[in-house]
Design a protein that fits this description.
Elements: E1 9-14, H1 20-32, E2 36-41, H2 51-58, H3 75-82, E3 85-91, H4 93-101, H5 107-114, E4 119-123, H6 127-130, H7 133-144, E5 148-149, E6 153-156, E7 162-166, H8 170-183, E8 191-196, E9 201-202, E10 208-209, H9 216-227, E11 231-236, E12 248-251, H10 255-266, E13 271-274, E14 281-283, E15 302-304, H11 308-315, E16 321-328, H12 332-342, E17 347-352, E18 363-364, E19 367-370, E20 373-377, E21 381-382, H13 383-398
Parallel strand pairs: 1-2, 1-3, 3-4, 4-5, 8-11, 8-13, 11-12, 13-16, 16-17
Antiparallel strand pairs: 6-7, 9-10, 14-15, 17-19, 18-21, 19-20
Helix pairs in contact: 1-2, 1-8, 3-5, 4-7, 9-13
């Protein structure tokens, strides 16, 4: 089988970490799969592995200096214009921070800022650095830009510590690059509507009824759909996430606002993916002033919110794909299948709530069901990986393949 990397121009960025030695194997694998590779190194990287090593492996001069060569003034533009994919492996905390902030002070960071092709980052750093709030924020920002990530992995560190932060194996980096290129353009010309996050139902100017949804799963789905070439409309409840690059964000607060936004966007959507956790009920009345504390007990009367997903099922036009989510604490398969049938869905993703998966964290587990039964169990994976698995199934369905 021909690799998606065959005949592609790959830029490989190498930064200054001990994992730089793994990048030599990454170059070998890329070339073995038919790609042409140009290595761009930082000065710190050259202290770990010499440019001569990468020149010999790639068959091209390794680029290290923004001011090298007669075309120095535009070298980063020249490099960025020809690339089909830019892979940074290893990517240090310093490079990740610079990329998230738009800092361009050497050849690698300047080229990275200029590229329009898919970008794959393979982080590598000490486990305590990887766990720092600043690095987590910067990674989330880059995910919002549409960057893909390979790893990092858990294991022993060069310093003797153990934890998350090891650069993924070269084979895993190559596989991630192949996946990015294979999926590029899959959804070109298609419109995908995604909902994400919670809805908040106000009681007064201070209090509301809500749930624990962080929006991470829906945002991961929107990001992956955009990466695959779709026009993406993301209807999002209140979250503290960076919107994915290239999506059309519609911010809402309540279930009624989400219903209006979804119904408007669904008219043009080829696929509707309802990942939001919509409140089932809302207070019957909303006080315009803060409700003061009074008696030891009080009653709040709730009324039912509209079932947005069921309404879409009733109005679904021929050829439109409707996907629901079922966040369940028990009887996942039974409840998901019942929801699939009752709401006239094409596909439903059941995900467990509690433990290491579900609301708030970065891990999830999707059990996908179609009208003919069980399709796929992702196992416990990151929400980005779960989104990729879900989009793979949706793409097959949109190609006319049966959801069996």
């Amino acid at each position: 089988m021909i690799s998606p990397l065959a005949n592609k121009e790959v830029l490989l960025g190498v930064t200054g970490g001990i994992a730089a030695y793994k990048s030599a194997e990454v170059v070998r694998l890329f070339r073995e799969k038919g790609a042409s590779v140009t290595v761009v190194m930082t000065e710190s990287a050259a202290r770990f592995v010499t440019p001569l090593t990468f020149s010999a492996l790639s068959g091209r001069p390794a680029r290290t200096n923004l001011f090298d060569g007669y075309d120095a003034a535009i070298s980063h533009i020249e490099l960025s214009a020809k690339a089909d994919i830019f892979v940074v492996a290893p990517a240090t905390a310093n490079l990740i921070g610079k990329a998230a902030s738009g800092i361009a002070d050497d050849l690698l960071s300047t080229t990275l800022l200029a590229v329009k092709c898919p970008v794959l980052i393979a982080p590598a750093m000490n486990c305590r650095m990887y766990d720092s709030p600043a690095v987590k924020r910067n990674i989330e920002t880059l995910r919002g830009f549409g960057y893909g990530f390979a790893g990092p992995d858990e294991g022993p560190m060069a310093c003797g510590e153990y934890g998350w932060g090891r650069m993924s194996a070269p084979s895993a980096v190559a596989e991630a690059a192949e996946a990015m290129l294979a999926h590029a353009g899959q959804f070109a010309g298609k419109t995908v509507l995604v909902t994400a996050g919670p809805t908040l139902e106000d009681m007064d100017p201070v209090r509301f009824i809500g749930n624990r949804s962080s929006g991470r799963m829906g945002y991961a789905v929107a990001r992956e759909a955009a990466r695959r070439g779709a026009r993406v409309v993301l209807v999002s409840g209140p979250v503290s996430l960076v919107p994915p690059a290239g999506v059309e964000l519609v911010s809402v607060r309540s279930a009624l606002e989400m219903e209006a936004a979804v119904n408007a966007a669904a008219k043009d959507a080829d696929a509707v993916i309802m990942a939001a956790a919509v409140s089932d009920y809302r207070p019957e009345t909303v006080s315009h002033t803060k409700i003061k504390k009074g008696a030891d007990e009080t009653t709040v009367r709730l009324v039912k919110n509209p079932d947005i997903l069921a309404g879409l099922g009733k109005r679904k036009r021929p050829g439109q794909l409707l996907v629901g989510f079922a966040a369940e604490t028990d009887d996942q398969e039974k409840n998901a299948k019942a929801k699939l049938k009752a709401k006239r869905l094409d596909l439903i993703a059941a995900n467990p709530v509690g433990g290491e998966t579900g609301f708030g964290g970065d891990l999830n587990r999707l059990r996908l069901y179609g009208r003919a039964g069980h399709l796929l169990d992702t196992g416990v994976v990151t929400k980005a990986e779960a989104a990729r698995a879900l989009l793979d199934v949706i793409f097959d369905a949109m190609q006319g393949l049966s959801l069996k």
